[in-house]
C-alpha cells in the first residue's frame, strides 16, 4: 500500500480540537514514514473526526493514549485527500497533546471550520469542540448479496503462537487472531503466550477455510489492538521477519481476502515442512527479495496468478481507515 505523506495544506490559523478518544489506529510504517490516525468524538453526539499524527516527536502519543479519555490537541491544520475528498486534521511540529480542560473550550460548529469560515475562535487559544455537523465514522450497512463478516470486540489471552511470520496467534485455545492485515505492533514483542489482549472492531470470520480449525478474528486498519497485560510465563520471544516476509509480501501483492490468505499460509507451511531440510534454515527457504526470489516464492507465485483474479483491486488504505462506509479485505 502506498500513502502520499506530503499532503498540501493551505496556510491557515492553527486549530485546537478537543474530544473523547473514540478510536486509535495502528502505528504504520510505509516507505520509512511512520504515522497513525486517531479519532476524536464529540462530547454530545456520536460524530468522529480523524487526526493524522506523523511528526516523529509525537509518535510516543500512541503508547499513552487511552480509549474513552478526553484530550485536547493543539496546533492542527486541516487537509483533504484529492482522490476521495476525505477531510482530516493534521498535527504540526508545534502540536501538543493535553488533558481536556472544559474551561479552555469554546464550542463551534465543525462545518464552518472545514469550509474555512471560522473566525477568531479557530485560533489556537480556542478549542474546537466537535459537533454533529459532519457525519464521519458512522457505520452503515453496504448493500450486496454476499455475506459480510461481523465486527465485534473481544478480550482474550494468547495461548499459542500459530505462525508469527504470518501474524497468526491463538487466543483462549479456540480463536485465531490474524494481525497480518495491519503491521504487528512493536514487532509483536508483547504477544507471547500468557499475554492478555483487547480487540476492538475486529472482523469475525466463521470457518473462512474448510481445513482451518478455528474461528478467525481479523484486525484491519480500522481495528484497535490493545495489550492489556504482559505474559508472566517464561516463554521465548519469537520475532517476525523485519524484511523479506514472504507471507505479507504475497498478501499485499495480491490483496488477498482471509480464505485465500489462510490457504496460501497452509501451502507455505507444507512447503517448509517438506523442503526445509534441503535449505538448512527456514528463513533461506521463505526469504523474498525484489531481485532474488526464494524457492518458496518461485513455487507459489504461479499458483497465486492462476487462482487470484486479475481484476482484484489494489488495497486502498485511506478508505479502510477513513471511509464512512467501511471497506477492507476482511469484509467477506
TrEMBL record:
GO cellular component, one term: CST complex
Signal peptide (from-to): none
InterPro entries (UniProt xref): CTC1, CTC1-like
Recorded GO MF terms: single-stranded DNA binding; telomeric DNA binding
Subcellular locations according to the entry: Chromosome, Telomere; Nucleus
UniProt keyword annotations, A-Z: Chromosome, DNA-binding, Nucleus, Telomere
GO biological process per UniProt: positive regulation of DNA replication; telomere maintenance via telomere lengthening
Family of this protein: Belongs to the CTC1 family.
Name of this protein: CST complex subunit CTC1
Gene: Ctc1_1
Amino acid at each position: 500500500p502506498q500513502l502520499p505523506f506530503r499532503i498540501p495544506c493551505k496556510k491557515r490559523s492553527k486549530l485546537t480540537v478537543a474530544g473523547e478518544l473514540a478510536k486509535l489506529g495502528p502505528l504504520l510504517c510505509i516507505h520509512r514514514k511512520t504515522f497513525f490516525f486517531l479519532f476524536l468524538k464529540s462530547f454530545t453526539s456520536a460524530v468522529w473526526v480523524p487526526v493524522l499524527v506523523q511528526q516523529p516527536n509525537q509518535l510516543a502519543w500512541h503508547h499513552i493514549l487511552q480509549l474513552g479519555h478526553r484530550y485536547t490537541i493543539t496546533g492542527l491544520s486541516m487537509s483533504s485527500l484529492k482522490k476521495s475528498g476525505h477531510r482530516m486534521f493534521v498535527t504540526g511540529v508545534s502540536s501538543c497533546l493535553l488533558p481536556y480542560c472544559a474551561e479552555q473550550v469554546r464550542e463551534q460548529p465543525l462545518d464552518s471550520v472545514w469550509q474555512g469560515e471560522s473566525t477568531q475562535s479557530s485560533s489556537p487559544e480556542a478549542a474546537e469542540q466537535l459537533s454533529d455537523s459532519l457525519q464521519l465514522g458512522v457505520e452503515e450497512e453496504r448493500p450486496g448479496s454476499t455475506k459480510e463478516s461481523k465486527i465485534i470486540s473481544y478480550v482474550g489471552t494468547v495461548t499459542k503462537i500459530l505462525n508469527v511470520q504470518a501474524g497468526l496467534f491463538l487466543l483462549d485455545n479456540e480463536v485465531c487472531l490474524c494481525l497480518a492485515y495491519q503491521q504487528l505492533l512493536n514487532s509483536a514483542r508483547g504477544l507471547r503466550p500468557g499475554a492478555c489482549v483487547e480487540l476492538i472492531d475486529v472482523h469475525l470470520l466463521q470457518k473462512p477455510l474448510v481445513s482451518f480449525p478455528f474461528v478467525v478474528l481479523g484486525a484491519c486498519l480500522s481495528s484497535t489492538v490493545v495489550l492489556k497485560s504482559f505474559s508472566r510465563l517464561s516463554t521465548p520471544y519469537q520475532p517476525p521477519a523485519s524484511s523479506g516476509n514472504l507471507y505479507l509480501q504475497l498478501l499485499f501483492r495480491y490483496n488477498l481476502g482471509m480464505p485465500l490468505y489462510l490457504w496460501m499460509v497452509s501451502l507455505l507451511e507444507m512447503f517448509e515442512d517438506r523442503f526445509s531440510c534441503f535449505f538448512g534454515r527456514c528463513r533461506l527457504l521463505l526469504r523474498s527479495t525484489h531481485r532474488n526470489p526464494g524457492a518458496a516464492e518461485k513455487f507459489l507465485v504461479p499458483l497465486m496468478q492462476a487462482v487470484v483474479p486479475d481484476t482484484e483491486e489494489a488495497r486502498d488504505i485511506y478508505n479502510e481507515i477513513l471511509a464512512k462506509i467501511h471497506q477492507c479485505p476482511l469484509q467477506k
